Structure formats: structure tokens, C-alpha cells
């Protein structure tokens, strides 16, 4: 599935610059990371709660992945991130998109908030054997007081694995760099800062029990052969 939506990144730049008229101090996010929040499968899933999970090569797994942003005392008024997965050169198509969402955040007392600018993403592309997957245009902004000294989830993607294609081959999901329109940008009150936040996540393969049993039998046979050779 591939869809395209309005160029909202330009709108975010305009809103960020406008907010600069209302504040005197720059704000920036300090860190970004992926966390697999939940997983559902008929087989086991290892590593939930981290950025690296291992799943079965025989059963599909549904994985909920959050993009978290750690914000310091300077606070944050606007942020934009893009996500890519199943990158080349092999385009292994380990993951398919089930859903995605831009998440709102509000402090317990209601005095600080961060909310999506508008529904939907700018670009959605499913991965296959010829192309990488793309989720472009996760954006959030506040016209009031933004989050301070907190770690929050501002974007979420739900994937399902393609069991025959799952490999232990390194990182599979990235926040990606690009041109000033399509890169992940953290905005200051006066415009766009140069601080880009990087995050990566991986989906590895759990060795099947049968494979482990065969390996054990092979090692036992080798040990017996060595004893006979003596």
C-alpha cells in the first residue's frame, strides 16, 4: 500500500517559527529510542520491552513498536520523525505494516501537552522484495507549554512478521535521514535546529527447538566418532 498526504512538514516549520514569537528560550529533545511494547504470537517472543525482539520462523508475530523521545529541562514544542524498515540492498521483507498512530501526550495536571498536527502521515509505503517500507510524517506540536523532563511515546507502528523471511541480520527498523523536508527534525522556537535524533530496532529469529535437537544429535555423533577413533 502506498499513499500520499499533504506536505505537512512545511506547516510544522511555519508553526514552529510562529511559536518562537511566544517564547525566549530554545527547546530540544535529548534522545530517541524504539521500544517493542507488546507482541502476540502462537509461538514465543523474546525481548519485549526493549528495542530488539526475537520471534519464531514458523509462526507470525504481531509487534507493537513505540518511538520514545526523552525530553530534558529545556522542553519541547515540536518534533517530526520518519521511519523506514526492511531496507536494501536485499529488501528481505521481514515485516508488514498493520497500523500506525501519532500519539498525544498531556501532563497529569493538564498544563503541558504535545499533540499531532493533523491525522495521518505524509507517505506510507509497504515493503516487498523490491522496495523498503516507509512511514513518513510523524509530527507533534504544542501552542502552549510542551513536555519537560519526561520520556514519552509520540509515534506507534504495529507490524506483523513474515515468518519465512525473518533473519538475524542486524537492525530492521530505523528513524532515517534525508533532505530537510523528509528527515527527522527537532525544532527550536525560532525554527529548525540541526539536532537529528537516531533510533533503531531489530527483529531476530529464535532458533526452533527441532534445530537445537538436531544440533545436539550431531554433536553427540561427533563425540562418539572421536571415541571410536581412539
Explain the overall architecture:
The chain has helices at residues 8-19, 209-229; strands at residues 2-4, 29-41, 52-55, 61-71, 78-85, 95-102, 105-106, 113-114, 123-125, 133-141, 150-161, 173-175, 185-188, 191-192, 200-205. Strands 1, 3, 5, 9, 10, 12, 13, 14 and 15 form a 9-stranded mixed sheet that branches. It has a 4-stranded antiparallel sheet with strand order 2-4-11-6, with no helix packed on it. Strands 7-8 form a two-stranded antiparallel ribbon. Helices cover 14% and strands 39% of the residues. It has one domain (2-229). Strand 7 (105-106) and strand 8 form a beta hairpin. The protein is elongated, with a radius of gyration of 22 Å. Mean pLDDT is 78; it is low at 1-8, 16-29, 177-185 and 187-192. The protein is built from 2 helices and 15 strands. The protein is mainly β. It starts with a strand and ends with a helix.
N-to-C terminal Cα separation, in Å?
63 Å
The dominant shape is elongated
Question: If helices are DSSP runs of H or I spanning 4 or more residues, what is the number of helices?
Answer: 2
Question: Helix coverage percent of residues?
Answer: 10-25%
**Major β-sheet annotation:** 9 strands, mixed
Write the element-wise H/E pattern from the N-terminal end onward: EHEEEEEEEEEEEEEEH
Number of domains: 1
Question: Helices and strands: which structural class?
Answer: mainly beta
Mean pLDDT over the residues:
78
Radius of gyration: 22 Å
Indicate the proportion of strand residues: 35-45%
Instruction: Give start-end ranges of low-pLDDT stretches.
Output: 1-8, 16-29, 177-185, 187-192
